[in-house]
Protein 1
Amino acid sequence: MATCTVRTRKVLSNPLLRRKQMVIEVIHPDTANVSKAELREKIGALYKVKDTNTIFLFGFKTKFGGGRSTGYALIYDSWEAAKQFEPKCRLHRHGVEKPEKMPRKQRKERKNRAKKVRGTKKAKIQGK
């Protein structure tokens, strides 16, 4: 574990989305960056979170010259709330949601078939 200091700014409680959201400032003078898993542990200890899987970190930028980074953190009240409100790409990055991947040719054929019909019939062709 690298020595780093974590500070939080602009802490908001968002009851509609069932989460706390904040800006994270990480001071890491000896290392290039700090891993998100390590930051998740530190923030979990700071805010007394039971399950660190409900903490989502993103948007980190390192200041010029290094040693200091800022990013965003979302702490959800429960895992169900996180699955409901987090974008699929972040869930995938977190290692939870697997993206639906079909072969490229099938996707193109489906797209071109959908071009030939109008209205609600597109949904039938798309298969959703």
Note: The mean pLDDT is 87.
Protein 2
Amino acid sequence: SSGINAEYGGPRMIVDESGELVLLDNNGNIIRGETKDLLALLKKNILEEEIRLAEEQRQRELEEEKQRRQEAARLKALEPPRTPTPLPPRDFTLPFQFSRVFGKM
């Protein structure tokens, strides 16, 4: 294997040291063949790479979300427990003569 794939940056068509058009695939392998076959393979490799990158991004987002939840839970655990504010005492006795307002029941 030559030094071509040392700076690998995704699937692409390159010209090798001998001036031949070759495919550098998803794994950094050099593939030789008919140009149309290489282009079809390149397209397939690009789609696979896009799927892989999208999956990596999704995994990163899931991991970030998990870390945010853990951090929120950790901060919540550090808060002093909330004691409910007591309501002022209420006088539930009726301020009027019930029978005078509603008549005899």
Note: The CA atoms of residues 90 and 96 lie 16 Å apart.
Protein 3
Amino acid sequence: QVFFMHPSVDDDSGWSVLTGPVVINYVSDRDPGALRMAEAVDSPELRKKCKPGLLYFSTRGRMLQEGLSWDYDGDYFQIVSNQELLSGFRKEDTRTASPVLFGPSRSDSAVTPRTLTELQGHFLDTFPAHDNIGLYHYQWQLVAGES
């Protein structure tokens, strides 16, 4: 379980509490196997204790970061609560997906790197242009820095 208060978008009341199923990911971890399903909960006790804008993880049960490098030392996480996006995700689905690589021309022909150097070169040639999460995070940092 997690607890998260975010700015209210429906009115000027200040903060709203996120509830329901969510998928959480450490922003710099782009491994699809690092996505974790959790239940966002609300409670009056947590509202009194917790600071808005910070993500709190339950200390009971199996740890969400099990087998991952999350260290909770002020890192950024992304939280997905859109039910359409969550509909294809299962809590038990923690396998690492095999990447589908496309050539620099963005054609449908798959590229099979033969060496680690070729794989790294392919990543540096193609990934930055398609790093939507990174771009959104960068924009968020710019907006957050203005307030």
Note: Residues 95-99, 101-108 have pLDDT under 50 and may be disordered.
